[in-house]
Amino acid sequence: MHQFPIVEFLLDAGAAVDDETYDHVWDFTFRQKCTDQQWIALSRIRRSKGRNWIGDQNFPLIHLIVFGISSKPLIEELEENPTAVYQTDAKGRTALDWATARAQSGDMELLIQYGSDVNTMDHSGRTTVLHAVDSHNYEALKMVLEAGANTNPVIPEGLHRSSPLTSASFGGLTEMVDLLLEHGARINTPNPEGRAALHTTIIRNNHEILRSLIKKCDGTCLRDLKLLPVIAQHADEQTRAILESSGQFTEI
């Protein structure tokens, strides 16, 4: 997403924009994950299909309010149409999912107050908690967890999603990792590639997160994860020292 010169080169050379890339770029921008410079740089991809992506999403009015496309106050829509909190778009996302992804705490608070479900899952397996993790906003994650969001969602077979804890570990989001652990996130939940939070943390040699995870993991957990090949291939000296100094590691 950030290799703009390469993208420009490929487009100039006649490379076609596939549907997945087109959708990903639009989704990326609507989740407010790009700067003004990135918005401009990605414009060729957004315009490449000659389609109306916003129209394709079948956004209900409440979603358009969250995006700022509609000027109607959110509280007004909720009072007039309280069931709007359950409405989803073409991706299966609620207004709360989008507000969480965009870390719009005021909108999140209102939507939760009016009964929005904090444990929804869109068609790709992305949950409300995962939207919060992807926002990189600690307060957004804290809000949905305190409202009862599940840190260990069951992802249907065939959907390629990591657990919220693995995603936070991959992103190096130490405070989020600690918060998820406080709310019962399981360490040994693998993604479809067989990797859990500890695998990701060792591969990336994130020592602070590793210490947090080790405190919550016993020898059985470590054995189940089959960490030795990952340690042998990726662990730096400090990562090895942290593992070797833990009583849990010696039980492998």
From TrEMBL:
| InterPro entries named among the record's database cross-references | Ankyrin_rpt (IPR002110), Ankyrin_rpt-contain_sf (IPR036770)
Q: Where are the ANK repeats?
A: 91-123, 160-192
Q: What is this protein called?
A: Ankyrin repeat-containing domain protein
Q: What lineage is this protein's organism placed in?
A: Eukaryota, Fungi, Dikarya, Ascomycota, Pezizomycotina
Q: Which domain of life does the UniProt lineage start with?
A: Eukaryota
Q: Which Gene3D superfamilies match?
A: Ankyrin repeat-containing domain
Q: Which organism is it from?
A: Colletotrichum godetiae
PANTHER family assigned to the protein according to its UniProt record, in alphabetical order: ANKYRIN REPEAT CONTAINING, ANKYRIN REPEAT DOMAIN-CONTAINING PROTEIN 16
One Pfam annotation, family name? Ank_2
